[in-house]
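Progress narrative, work stream C.
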Amino acid sequence: MKDETTEHLKRDFRARDAFIIAFVFISPIVALYAVFGLVLQAAGPAGWWTFVVVLCCQLILAATLGVLVSRWPVEGGSYQWARRLVSPAYGWATGWAYLWTLIIVLASGAFFVAGFIPPLLGIKPFGVAEQTIVALVVLAAVTGLNMMGPTALKIFTRFSLVCEAIGSVGLATVLLIWHREQPLSVLTSTGGASSGHYLWGGFIFAVGVVGFSFAGFESVCSMAEEIKDPEKHLPKVMIGAVLCIGAVVLYSSLALILAIPDLPAVILGQVSDPAADTIVAALGPGFAKPFLALVVLGFVAAMLATQTSVSRVLWSFARDESLPASRFLVKLSGRHNNPVRAVVAIGVLAAVVTVSAFSDHIYTTLVSGATSGFFLTMSLVIAGLITSMAKREWRYGPVRLGRVTPLIAAAAGAWVAFQIVNLCWPRAEGEPWYVAWAVVIGMAAVAALGIAVRLFVRTPAETTSREPALVAD
């Protein structure tokens, strides 16, 4: 396919917009409240240190990916990087894994939001079936907002950024000053959470779960051709977003842990939502609904950013005629030339994932699957980068890390490889085998589907050295 479609893409986003999208994609509320209870049940209060470990490792990963996007600021992100680093087929496999990772993230966000609707409206909790139906409604609403174009995304994400930053930092400050229930020394205690050796028990599992909290900062690179001067700004945007999110999450999680009135109950899993329950216990029932509204807002904004990013990955595939119905999906609509068809397709696929994952373990399965998908994609990209460096074929863009680049890339590669093994390792004791191996089964299913699609679609001749087409400002 000719690149005539790409010249219609508009650079509607500045560096500030890119930072907000990356920040909101991770979101302090999403990063913390989605995994807070799981971390405490796995590692107790000492699980706070897992946030520190993951933050440091993700910064190494962000620096490595910054080198890549600086050279290839192309719509589609990791799909296009891997394609140019190794081969079109390798890039296709990488992009396919990333595509479904973001779709699963979108589905998990919708399911999580649906769970907050009953306490927000003051009605009885949903069953799994009811929550799944509401999640589909949430997906439809988010898809409708995304179809409106970049203006709706900018307005919603900026509003969410202000509310989340003020709410997270302000709330944490109030809890630390006036509602501390635990001593600072509790951060060195597991509270009996982990079985066996602490490091190889709950802590390692918690590191895997927290990986979900800081994953996705690179998703804004999938919109590179819509951002002004992406080769200069996106590396800084990724590192800045990870640092800011990390600072807010560390501060907020510290405040929440020290304010928990009944730690044993939380560690034993007797408290369904320890973050919300701690806040209500400290500030009273009157604060519950505003807090829940803030959580819902944060997740919806994150879903908007997710769907925007993944629709661009899908659109990039379609531009290369690498998917069925590529000619249909590549069409742009409206005065902003928004890939509306790709946005709708992603909404439909996320709905299919939500229904397919239907079970009592749906949320944990979706979170684990999404996190492992992120690290699998990054491992493929970094393996390609290391191979290119080893062959002395690598050429830098405007941003470089100097002579330490191979060492940083190797460290990032070791980190993502560790996380893949950590997340895939079966830990569901007493559960059926398909629950214990749910992540591996899910990854195998995505791979099998990918092989079938790849065999069905005959892609045109491509070259790995093809540079991105110019896009209109």
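Work stream C, second folded protein:
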Amino acid sequence: MAKKFNLREFQTQLSQQLQAAASRDNSGSRLGFRVGDVNWLVSLSDTEEVIPVPPIVKVPGACRWFRGVANIRGNLFAVSDFADFMGQGVTSEHADCRLLIPHHDFGVNAALLVRNTLGLKNINRYQPSSARVAHPWVARHYADEAGVDWCDMDFGQLLGNTEFLKVEAQIGN
């Protein structure tokens, strides 16, 4: 018989891991996540939290990648499908999907829909890669011990990007 997945236990463990990581030197620690077919990293100090996807209310007249708004503990957050925004296709929602919420210091109630999280990663074990930087929110590229490519996200660049902030659908598109 398959073991049941306990969401509360998972959330508690992830929260404890993030809190423990935040309390020590985490200059090399990143949260790994998957968007489309690309592995991403984000600094723990840039991340407020990662949560299961709550109900999302669609917004008429918005771009397809702008999923809508979600009520997260009494605050409205703008939810964007990060893969679709980058032209990698719509993220199909399933149990492993998460909302990645940037730190409140960015001053933006935004949430990124990601395919799944990949746990904590230590970039001090990774090698810088000379891969082409395709977007301004890619701070750098790495290759892990197995040679797998990772993009290190600059949340500030993404959240300040004009195209990311322009959620209204363009007529004729």
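The longest strand covers residues 29-35. No further action is required on this item.
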